[in-house]
Amino acid sequence: MKSMEGTLKNIVLAGIGTVSYSYEKGKTLIDEMVAKGELTMKEGEDLAGELKAFFNRDAKNRTRHWFDDTINRILEEMHVTTKEETNQLKKEIDAMESRLTLLEQQIATLQQSED
């Protein structure tokens, strides 16, 4: 289980690193555009503010979506059943147990009638 915990921790850290790297690259690009005169200082500040707001606003949802997809893919590759699959298997087992009980009762009845 330690191995799985380590893997999950690494996945989370990779996701955080990706978001952080994307923000930093965007900020660097804005700074370069200001330095080249392609944007005014005010435009650069406004754009940087929008970029920061975008990452703050959407990072949680994007990170959660990315994390859920990654976890589901890992669990699928490990052939771990989902909660729905487990519940379906339980229903099938319950149905089989009911059929088995019925068959056992029928066998017992047949054996009694033979005696």
UniProtKB/TrEMBL annotation:
Residues 79-113 form a coiled coil. Keywords: Coiled coil. It comes from the Bacteria. InterPro entries: PhaF_PhaI. PANTHER family: SLR0058 PROTEIN (PTHR38664). This is Polyhydroxyalkanoate synthesis regulator phasin.
